[in-house]
Task: structure prediction
Amino acid sequence: MYKDSVSVQVEDFSIAHLCQQIRADDVSNGAIVTFTGIVRELSDDPKLKAMYLEHYPGMTEKALANIIAQARQRWTLGNVVVVHRIGHLLLNDNIVFVGVASAHRVAAFQAAQFIMDYLKRDAPFWKKEITTAGEYWVEAKQSDLDAADSW
Result:
């Protein structure tokens, strides 16, 4: 039986540790695909100094588990790990990790992208950008909504 792991946390995560968690107790999968999102500098002025993320406890974890379940309906998957950080994050800090195991690479790549696209649209996170010009709550980008709708 494969395992799903969902975590919403303040603490940073170890990509190596999470990759081991995806591989754990499973010799039937030939592909692991991971995505790590990090805090990056904005391309325009004002310059980003930090980011603050909030979530709806309980509901967020349930939404992430539901997204993984939807991916499992589309692809045959091994272990799946999703970690999302909350709180105050600085430039180059890890924000999100999605890791998917599957017997074949195509399913692993597609499932990882699907999970990330749906996470951006359906998981209840709120993001505030702290810039040189002030602090602003950020609305969902149309491109993120379109990405999830494309599935």
The domain at 4-149 is CATH 3.90.1170.40 (Aldehyde Oxidoreductase; domain 3). The first strand starts at residue 4 and ends at 9. The longest helix spans residues 105-122.
